Amino acid sequence: MQSRDLILHSSSHSNVKQCKSKKIKRPASLCVKATSSKVELDFNDPSWKQKFQEDWEKRFNLPSITDIYDLKPRPTTFSLKKNRTRTGDENVDMWNGYVNNDDRALLKVIKYSSPTSAGAECIDPDCSWVEQWVHRAGPRKEIYYEPEEVKAAIVTCGGLCPGLNDVIRQIVFTLETYGVKNIVGIPFGYRGFFEKGLKEMPLSRRLVENINLNGGSFLGVSRGGAKTSEIVDNIQARRIDMLFVLGGNGTHAGANAIHEECRKRKLKVSVVAVPKTIDNDILLMDKTFGFDTAVEEAQRAINSAYIEARSAYHGIGLVKLMGRSSGFIAMHASLSSGQVDVCLIPEVPFTLDGELGVLGHLEHLLKTKGFCVVCVAEAAGQDLLQKSGATDASGNVILSDIGVHMQQKIKTHFKDIGVPADVKYIDPTYMVRACRANASDAILCTVLGQNAVHGAFAGFSGITSCICNTHYVYLPITEVIKAPKRVNPNSRMWHRCLTSTGQPDFH
Predict the structure, then answer these.
(1) Which DSSP letter does residue 408 get?
(2) How far is 59 from 475, CA to CA, in rounded Å?
(3) Coil, strand or helix: which one is 300?
(4) pLDDT tens digits, one per residue of 434-479
(5) CA–CA gap between residue 469 and residue 492 (Å, rounded)
(6) Which residue ranges make up the annotated binding site for substrate?
(7) What residues form the annotated binding site for Mg(2+)?
(8) Within 13 Å and on the Cβ side, how many CA atoms surround 463?
């Protein structure tokens, strides 16, 4: 039996360190070094679960401005009691709308009976059940800011994503509900902190009331930015007390760096992130906003490819979807459409040529059904292409175009074997990114935006507002930026996708 990885989060990276002990007969890893705390776990120690739990609590403890300031909380100004009909001398504190600081949500709910169970994520070789609790999000009874004195800023970074305007809107709404009067938007991502001529935008409920009806970002977006110290200098100069950062992995890393610099300078600034990526590739979260909408739009592209392929003689519909680090969009769009014959993602290697290659399978599909549809994630098959070595403004490696490569390879292959093939290639990237959020994402954006404000008023900083195991929670940014979340090829969802497409192994 192969050794099992320690999986503290949904990552493909292993944290295993084998113990050197001749007395141990177990074939699996028996000693693990935890990523953050460097605490070593020896599974022969009867108290290893307790040590794991203590390490977990330490890692997932939420950073707060009270860590550097001796602050006394004040009663919250957030209450919806005023909107309800009072029936007598009711105590406002009895309103059951606040979250206790000790409330937790369980991160994982499946107790795997064996390390060989589909999708099993085990801590120890026996796959013991270990509770992993994370902090519940929501409004607290006590807050650490005077709303009338607060200046709050919102910034959207990276690329476009459905739902950005929904989150901006809800952050403004919730801040005003607390009583905040001074709310501003930072234009064009982190660039707005240092680019001359870019002025902050005053925001109010009236101004943002209908921005959710459009796609894009009301504040604009950009990649990259100035040095962290320069951004924090700007935050100090503008006297910003709360900074809400909307973005993906890179943006979260930037937000955490800003948070750390603010702590270093002992600034009373809460930095709260909201995870934004259509790729759904941030650790520990059920999903990020924009993902559902992206899948829905991608499904439309697949349907167009299906109609084109079915209507042509030996038609082959080829759709390239976004997925810089992971294949979640391609997998879910393939599942939801039900029209895909081949789904290719970066987590599962494949070959194009040879007896077991994709091209040979396409030959089979044209012979048996007359047409086919292929869905490929943008990061899939990069090992088959020449690497550019270039990076974008965010430091991301610029990927070679697997879609165009496959289009050319398919045409050449069928021409060489004398079989007619009509390739219909569709790349809906910008259509997927720029559209308005669907109902599912709009709800998610609404709650994430509200909870981001609740977290800031509760004094938390260096956290992100997200959804885990169907519950809304706060996570330390440090725990979600360690690596991209990727599709587990042993997961039930990928197995379901293979069942739907009927594709064989391509390697």
Answers:
(1) H
(2) 10
(3) helix
(4) 999 999 999 999 999 999 999 999 999 999 999 999 999 999 999 9
(5) 16
(6) 277-279, 322-324, 378, 430-433
(7) 249
(8) 33
